[in-house]
Amino acid sequence: MTVQYQHTLRGPFEIEGVGIHTGAAARVRVEPAGTGEGVTFVLPGGERISALAENVTETARATVLGTGNASVSTVEHLLAALFGMGIDNASIAISGPEVPVADGSSAVFAEHIVRVGSVAQNELRRTFVPSHAQFFRDGDRALILLPAARFRVRYVADYAAPIGSQYFDAEIDPEVFRDTIAGARTFGYLHEVENLRKRGLAQGGSLDNAVVFGPDGPMQPLRWPDEPVRHKVLDLLGDLSLLGVRPQCEVIAIKSGHKLHCTATKELRRQIVRAVPSANVR
Length: 282
Ligand SMILES: [Zn+2]
Prior knowledge:
By secondary structure, this protein is an alpha+beta fold.
């Protein structure tokens, strides 16, 4: 295996927009950070929240990080872009309660990361290498981690018509992430949209930032025929980034979502912190 150094951004980038669930506008500025700092959100009140599993406070529809009274919602697409593009350390200043949804994918974040570039830092990456198979289960959903030389994700999605069953399998590096995952958008069913709105969710959702499936198929052109499973992989990567270290293993996910991902990453974080106490120093 090649020796891998931590990476940060070569410079800052900014995006502005509304959150898909709250509809609230926010500006996000992503800046370089030092070795060992990991990814940290800096909220309008100055509170700092490390993007680590132990700081996850909610997983219904989106991943929410919080500490005390402060929280930041829908962090997973930005975190997926940083993780997928190989950025270990970054500081994210945000002016509102929710990360802007952009087009519902990680594409805009990934493009900014490519534009500003990344730089290797003078400290090795910390990795999580499971010594044995581990599994997490919630009803018919499962998340399995197997020892492997490289990071690989296999995801099995199984949805009601018209989405159906979809399967994704790839060793994931920045090129694979950028070309095959980053552009996959959030999706949902037409009949769900009204329910979400009633619950005060999806206030910022529209056909510009989510693929909506009606009874006969998608209401907008898809970017790939299997765009939904690619988005599920994107969400999984964002949630796995909350380990705070690079997983080096094969991940088999069956119908998993934020809730199961969070159960798994919280338990794995306990193992990581036990094995490498410095992983907790942030
Ligand atoms: Zn998502």
